Amino acid sequence: MRPPWKLLCFLVLTVIAACGGSGGSGGVQIASSLPPPVSSPAPSVQGTRTISYGGVSVQVVIHVPPAAVKDALVLYHPTVWFDDRILGAAENTLDNFKRLLNRDDMLLVSVAYPQQNREIGEGLREAEAALLWVKNEASRALGVSINRVFIAGHSQGAYVVTRLNSLQPTNGVIANAPGPLDFEYRCLLEERGSAPGSQECGLMVQRYGRPSANPAPYRKISLLSYTEGFKADALFVQGLNDADIQMRSWPLLKQAVQTCTNCQRPVFLEVTGGHDALFTSFTAREAFNQFIDQRRAAASAVRID
After folding, report:
1. pTM assigned to the model
2. Which of 108, 110, 120, 158 has the greatest number of C-beta atoms within 10 Å?
3. How far is CA 146 from CA 130, 132, 152, 231, in A?
4. pLDDT above 90 as % of the chain
5. What CATH architecture does domain 45-181+232-298 belong to?
């Protein structure tokens, strides 16, 4: 017996639907069970290059974010005496600050300024050259648009950005546990055997003699000697459980900067934690991002040439 024609039509339509056929403009359409494709964000780019400005060359680690660049954050590493470890320190510094940021539209440039066989502060030549390169040449060299420039550093890197703040205008400075604050005192402790010897003090002894006999060069290096003429607002972060030698001089730095009459506004944040408090304290991280966000808004139309 032949099946009824209605049953045949039903079977044909069922087969077409199961195969996803459209049957033309008036056919049956079946939605795919797969989710629609999602476009992936543009990947970030990170690499090392040697840059030069004003005849001064230095290596930098550059992170170009996936989002469109709006601003730049120039970073400075802590003490690393041997120059064959400087690049690794610059990379670590970039990674640490990248984790702090709550935004992905900032160009990060970590400066591998040299330290080996140099007095503290001698690396400012390369540190400043890198900052000037970011301000004046990075946009063209990297194909990005930079509106504002911030600088940040940890430990001796914080020393560097604090001194740079009296040399070059930026949109803001972040300094975590800056030092050495009182280099004369530190090297006196080493001379007396109260602290382990360091390459930094050893180099100074070779060049200038012991700090007890010739304290002036040691005093000149100390960050306490550079607390005036800051061109940008600065956020100073200090963990209250840092080493005794740091905490001895921290109140002196704080007082000197707060009484400065030719400085832009300083912000001091003291939190529970050690030398790396900026990277371990939630409060410090929030203050770090708030500091940048507020100054991004305030400086939207301000040039820093």
Report:
1. 0.84
2. 110
3. 15, 13, 17, 19
4. 79
5. 3-Layer(aba) Sandwich (3.40)
